[in-house]
Amino acid sequence: MTFRAKHLLGIEPLHPTEITTLLDLADGYADHNRRGVAHRDVLAGLTQINMFFENSTRTQASFELAGKRLGADVMNMGMQASSIKKGETLIDTALTLNAMRPDLLVVRHPHSGAVDLLAQKVNCAVLNAGDGRHEHPTQALLDALTIRRAKGRLHRLSIAICGDIAHSRVARSNIMLLGKMENRIRLIAPPTLMPSGVADFGVEVFENMEEGLKDVDVVMMLRLQKERMDGGFIPSEREYFHRYGLDAEKLAHAKPDAIVMHPGPMNRGVEIDGTIADDINRSVIQEQVEMGVAVRMAAMDLLAQNLRASRSPAEVMV
Amino acid sequence: MKTTFFANARLIDPVALTDGPGAILIEDGIIKEVLDAGATPPKSANVIDCGGQCLAPGIIDIGVKVSEPGERHKESFRSVGVAAAAGGVTTIVTRPDTLPAIDTPETLEFVERRAQEDAPVHVLPMAALTKGREGREMTEIGFLQDAGAVAFTDCDRVVTNTKVFSRALTYARSLGALVIGHVQEPGLSEGAAVTSGKFASLRGLPGVSPMAERMALDRDIALLEMTGARYHVDQITTARALPALERAKRNGLQITAGIGVHHLTLNELDVADYRTFFKLKPPLRSEDDRVAVVQAVAEGLIDIISSMHTPQDEESKRLPYEEAASGAVGLETLLPAALRLYHAEMIDLPRLFRAMSLNPAHLLGLTAGRLQAEAPADLVLFDPDAPFQLDRAALLSKSKNTPFDGARMQGRILGTWVSGERIWEGA
């Protein structure tokens, strides 16, 4: 057993062997999911609460499905409409929830670090489903599993991450994870969408997409948030697509067998051309969604094992 | 006539920049004579044996937030006075960023009355430069000055309207009033929680470029050339702002600069996993910047060290980092924190007290801040080496938001005297 973490708050605190352990387990779950093998005993008797302080359809559905496939009792709480509007602080919300004795808490929050703060106040396992611009660990893990299955390995690959890196928690978690697994990472973005201090990240930085994509094995596109499109960070949608949108011409600079990824939801015609997204020979975007469920099953399985081990026998029986 | 003789002291003299054995005789709250180590006390004097420990002029702390009026649960004049005494601070210069802001002679008089009733240390109030600190209309600078305001500042709010600011500076100059400004280019720093760079990006927190400080300083320096006002920058925290400051001083402008002790002793990495007690305004900087500003204090380019005492209650700090309030309490940890620079051999004790006592006195036209005959007997006796571990629950401030909780520090304040009266006796 080489997965010691109590919570999954980010990729940063994970050791490479923990990542591999999780991916190995997820790999098995992915196959079982395809064959329809059920595992309803794994989280049986445990309660999973999904607490989303920010809108999400896909991630929340993926966590819900993962929990249900493993037999957990899953509850969704849409927090945007709830008590924070009534002035309750995050910590009070956490304490209230903690009193309901959940076992797994899946949290998304618009502020960086909010999930860490919450994890300090509860005694269940916390999974970060995205906090501000900080981390989105399950997304990076599902990307890693998708790459590993497509390329047969997760090291010594040349991987380009393109788009709004400055505001992307997906990019941060991926840079962290792919770096830990010893890959070459290239960041491609207009300078206004590049994070500060990027030169110290141990990555190669490109402002020109054709140069950045040269001979890469993997092309990861990021979503450009609508509110960043007009004037503030880039001049316009169409200029962005012209310079940084992934089309066949730009993709031709990558290796012939390079795969194309996108965390979704896509803006077709803004960051990615529709025909590339739908090209079954290049795009693994649907596989990413599939691996998402498997990775989340594996993460909750491992955290639940650690949780059970940490609780005294008497407590488990209650 | 009441005389007290401080025997067997290690005198820290920020004027002569000396640190050596000696004795002091005080009479009726005034320093009568500074004597050699071998001097014998007059027969009538009450003798205090300093045991070879450091005796220095009491600290004059510019920029202390007392949360009266408005938020007395965070800090009152009583609690701030006790905290100051425990920290060896004999004069606090209070900020007007209260609720409401201190922007009329009437609110200023309230503050003075409360200070008189409750605080054992000298309290010198500052007043807002613009009404409501809103940056639109200047306050009654003349009336406020008559009522006792020692300086005019909108605290951490920058007067963004350059015309308003230049008029306020011009008007203040005609009265010889001191204006204290905060330098952060407001457009760049809006919404920022940390200094931009690798750390900010890793934590996913919105950052402000350290350049924002220099940009705002450049504007203010140009305005000083225009208006000839007397101007003090509350905090210079980045290396990039230093050459501009140095040039402005060399060109003969009436400009001085301060820095909070936290920016001299901590850096951005101390924020670690979103520790909101380290959220300050301006945010903590890189280690390179910290070393540069420590050097600037040692050289005298940065004139003044303050605690930037900012009480915040638990509720305003126990929030996600971006939402949490800024500021830290500092009166009781100012000297032990500053002594870290002494123990690191970056600044010697006379120079530390030049920045904490003498220069603030100069700036405000006070005779305190020095160990000389005729100066007020505002003194601090401390052991610079005594180690301790800070427990924030033990702080005397009502608010406990210190970034030094659990930190190992050195420096115990053994005694504090204000106008010859002992107001603190440390263990």
From TrEMBL, chain A:
Catalytic activity: carbamoyl phosphate + L-aspartate = N-carbamoyl-L-aspartate + phosphate + H(+)
Keywords of this entry: Pyrimidine biosynthesis, Transferase
Pathway: Pyrimidine metabolism; UMP biosynthesis via de novo pathway; (S)-dihydroorotate from bicarbonate: step 2/3
Keyword Transferase: yes
Domain Aspartate/ornithine carbamoyltransferase Asp/Orn-binding: 157-302
Record note on quaternary structure: Heterododecamer (2C3:3R2) of six catalytic PyrB chains organized as two trimers (C3), and six regulatory PyrI chains organized as three dimers (R2).
GO MF term (any one): aspartate carbamoyltransferase activity
Protein name: Aspartate carbamoyltransferase
Similarity comment text for this entry: Belongs to the aspartate/ornithine carbamoyltransferase superfamily. ATCase family.
Residues reported in the UniProt entry to bind L-aspartate: 86, 169, 223
Protein purpose: Reversibly catalyzes the transfer of the carbamoyl group from carbamoyl phosphate (CP) to the N(epsilon) atom of ornithine (ORN) to produce L-citrulline. Catalyzes the condensation of carbamoyl phosphate and aspartate to form carbamoyl aspartate and inorganic phosphate, the committed step in the de novo pyrimidine nucleotide biosynthesis pathway.
Protein's organism: Yoonia maricola
Catalytic EC class: transferase
GO cellular component: cytosol
Residues given in the record as carbamoyl phosphate binding sites: 58-59, 108, 136, 139, 264-265
InterPro entries membership: Asp/Orn_carbamoyltranf_P-bd, Asp/Orn_carbamoylTrfase, Asp/Orn_carbamoylTrfase_sf, Asp_carbamoyltransf, Asp_carbamoyltransf_Asp/Orn-bd
Gene from which the chain derives: pyrB
PANTHER family: ASPARTATE CARBAMOYLTRANSFERASE, ORNITHINE CARBAMOYLTRANSFERASE, MITOCHONDRIAL
One of the GO biological process terms: 'de novo' UMP biosynthetic process
Signal sequence segment: none
Enzyme Commission number: 2.1.3.2
Stretches assigned to the Aspartate/ornithine carbamoyltransferase carbamoyl-P binding domain: 6-148
Automatic annotation (TrEMBL), chain B:
Signal peptide: none
GO CC, one annotated term: cytoplasm
GO biological process per UniProt: purine nucleobase catabolic process; pyrimidine nucleotide biosynthetic process
GO molecular function: allantoinase activity; dihydroorotase activity; metal ion binding
Keywords, alphabetical: Pyrimidine biosynthesis
InterPro entries in the record: DHOase, DHOase/Allantoinase_Hydrolase, DHOase_cat, Metal-dep_hydrolase_composite, Metal_Hydrolase
Domain (Dihydroorotase catalytic) ranges: 52-238
CDD domains: DHOase_IIa (cd01317)
Organism superkingdom: Bacteria
NCBIfam families: pyrC_multi
Official protein name in the record: Dihydroorotase
